[in-house]
Amino acid sequence: MKDTFHRPVALALAFELGLDPTTIKPDQDLHRDLGLQFFDVVFVAQRLEEVLAIQIPLRALDGVRTVIELTRIVSLAPRKARKSVISTMRPAGQTHGGFRS
C-alpha cells in the first residue's frame, strides 16, 4: 500500500522543491536531506489533501522525519466526505424555503 502512495508524495515533494520526482527516495530525511521545515511539510500535506481528497490532521505531521513516514501518514489518512449530489438537488421550481418564486 505504501508503494501506491509513494508516487504522489514524491511528486508533491518534487514540485515543492523543484526536483525530479525520481530523485525522491523513501529513506530521505525531510529536514536534513531535503531541507524542508515544518511549514513546508504542512504545505506539501495540504497539496496532497487536495489532490487525493484526504484529510491529514496537523498533529499527524508533528515529528515526521522521512519520506516513508509521510507516505505512511498519507496512506492512512481518511478520505474527505463528499457531498451527495442528491442532497444538493431541489425539485423543479422549488427555492430554499420550499416556495415557488
TrEMBL record:
Residues 16-72 form the Carrier domain. Signal peptide: none annotated. InterPro entries: ACP-like_sf (IPR036736), PP-bd_ACP (IPR009081). It comes from the Bacteria. Pfam families: PP-binding. Coiled coil: none annotated. This is Carrier domain-containing protein. It comes from Labilithrix luteola.
